[in-house]
Amino acid sequence: MTILVTGGAGFIGSNFVLDWLSSSDEPVVTLDALTYAGNLENLASLAGDARHIFVKGDICDGALVAKLLAEHQPRALLHFAAESHVDRSISGPGAFMRTNIEGTYTLLEAARAYWSELGEADKAAFRFHHVSTDEVYGSLGADDAPFAETKTYEPNSPYSASKAASDHLVRAWHHTYGLPVLTTNCSNNYGPLHFPEKLIPLMIVNALAGKALPIYGDGKNVRDWLYVTDHASAIRAVLAGGRLGETYNIGGWNEMTNLDIVHTVCALLDELRPDAGGSYKRLITYVKDRPGHDRRYAIDARKIERELGWRPAETFATGIRKTVQWYLDHPEWVARVQSGAYRDWVAQQYTA
Ligand code: NAD
Ligand code: DAU
């Protein structure tokens, strides 16, 4: 038995692969194009581990995906690979359309061809697990009910529109061809190995460098935050017991404003790495808002709990402490990430 993971060198994918191999001996083949967000160093602890094979390649390369499926005969394909940063999708949507839509289409077609040739037992056991986001549902008002799986799709950014399109493709391949698919829509993840263009890691690394902590708009946008290994355990639960063709929302029951997040990060840094200049909160700076900035996301995660018994193991207090400590303990990881394309991106994003 083997699983094929796309995007396994990124933030969530690498945490998933590490988590998987820490609790199972079932081999993993990771396919990742190593874009700016893909970092093989995230998987360095698996070097020489016979249970893990890394393949550098593009999910839009149908021949490569077909070859990997034929060669490794996986019993599941877990699809994490994506362009994932909303701000980048606003300044350059093309890569999002290609990877998130065309890439998912390419994987579905390759998986369909492979799956249709399997023997009956393997065919029944095969799963195509699509990892998606709560952003496909749109934006909530302060008093609206959290997103349930039945919520209409109302994506607002090029990123969320491309993920919504990919969700629809996955659904269609199930209904039309019978491909055994599962889709999970998760809220904002945080934790180790998070690329420092996203809110939480950016605030940690900027604070430690004495740089401004840029808050978009009024800082009162709300997100639901989930520790990344809880996302991994939720995916394992859905892969193992999810009903075919169903979607499962995954969330942390933890809505917070961006300002509350940044204040929490600053307070932890004040405790763990006090700065002679005073509290890190002095670095908070309000900057121009993200265009079309969704106001609030919230997840109703009762379906996955009711059907599969999954609930997050971490609270925000435990998860954010581990996260801040991880960044304090890994300055060399941060330095290497920052010496690459990331630096050019930050310069482009935060001028003017
Ligand atoms: P990430 O940007 O950190 O990693 C994406 C990975 O995909 C990288 O390793 C990158 O190299 C790879 N990749 C990109 N284009 C590729 C291509 N064409 N072919 C092969 N590999 C390619 O993203 P993440 O935050 O780890 O998100 C993983 C998945 O989870 C995405 O599908 C995202 O939409 C979804 N998601 C993310 C969050 C979150 O909070 N980060 C929440 C819910 C869902
Ligand atoms: O909800 C799930 C989604 O969460 C995932 O699908 C995306 O891949 C992931 O990037 C994330 O999207 P967000 O846009 O919510 O995450 P981001 O970290 O970019 O921003 C979180 C909030 O913080 C958002 O309201 C914008 C704000 N923000 C972000 C940055 C980078 C700031 O105020 N300042 C910043 O510098």
Radius of gyration: 20 Å
Q: Number of DSSP strands?
A: 12
Q: Remind me, CATH topology of the domain at 3-190 and 228-253 and 293-312?
A: Rossmann fold
Average pLDDT, all residues: 96
Give the ordered list of helices and strands.
EHEEHEHHHEHEEHEEHEEHEHHHH
Low-confidence stretches: none
Q: Name the ligand types.
A: nicotinamide-adenine-dinucleotide, 2'deoxy-thymidine-5'-diphospho-alpha-D-glucose
| Strand order across the largest sheet | 3-2-1-4-5-6-10
Biggest sheet details: 7 strands, parallel
CATH class call of the domain at 3-190 and 228-253 and 293-312:
Alpha Beta
What proportion of the residues form beta strands (DSSP E)?
15-25%
Helix content: 40-55%
Structural class: alpha/beta
CATH superfamily of the domain at 3-190 and 228-253 and 293-312: NAD(P)-binding Rossmann-like Domain
CATH architecture of the domain at 3-190 and 228-253 and 293-312: 3-Layer(aba) Sandwich
- Rounded to the nearest angstrom, the distance between the terminal CA atoms is 52 Å
Shape: globular
